[in-house]
Amino acid sequence: MSDFVTQGGFAAYVWPAYGISAFALAVLGLWIVSDYRKAKAKLAALAELERPTP
Amino acid sequence: MPSLFEFANPKKFMDLSGSLLPWLVAAAALTLGAGLLLGFTTPPDYQQGDTVRIMFVHVPAAWVAMMAYGVMTVASIFGLVNRHPLADIAARAAAPIGAVFTALGLITGSLWGRPMWGAWWVWDGRLTSFLLLLLIYLAYIALNDAIENETRAARASAVFAIVGAVNLPIIEFSVQWWTTLHQGESILRKGGPTIAPVFLWPLFLMALGYTFLFFVFWTIRIRSEILNRRSRTLLEMRAG
Fold first, then answer.
1. Which residue of B147, B215, B227, B236 has the lowest C-beta tally within 10 Å?
2. Is residue A14 less than 8 Å (CB to CB) from chain B?
């Protein structure tokens, strides 16, 4: 367990490399998904307005 | 046999990508999970120690950064030659994703370089041409956003992307053309990889996982842009 954490004395380089990668990809993924949801909601709202009222 | 252009129809693309996306997400999760598991259970390298594990996030990020630019270039060529709107959307959608992977390649490379070379950064051929790739991505995004007319923006950005593609072979062959601290080709080379299989497997799985992840992100961004264009069309119909 200790070897895993210390990464043979290179923890200061190994963990930031993984941490930054995970963080950046998570933020990118969240931004892309939130953008998609916004686009979907906007189109749905516009389509609703276009629907003829009875 | 359906042609590629049949799937380039936005309606067909939405249907096809909608059913493909869950599979792509699952493939990305599986390969990344397996890659991480293998990557953290391999023994340390006899020369590099545990820093060799940085390779499992650095090389895939660099690979996807270049692949994304290749995708953007091919889409730009289709956009210019065939005037297909989905090609323009596909090129535009790849840019920010490629930029993030390029930045990750630079950052993780720097974190690997410091303990191995004793320097965070050196102005050698590979690193400089890779930094240039990030600047090209950023300039492409800025150019695309700066021009209001969609068609003109797509044309100008496509030409810029195609010209910028000259940097891809420079990145690839920089380690052969110039004296560099960066290691030479060690995977796709004549005579086979010089990396031990124990490191090659996690590297392969992580590269595959990053590739799937790129296609997940890219597909969702294309879908968003198609929906945004439909919204704009509806708004224009209401206005006009």
1. B236
2. yes
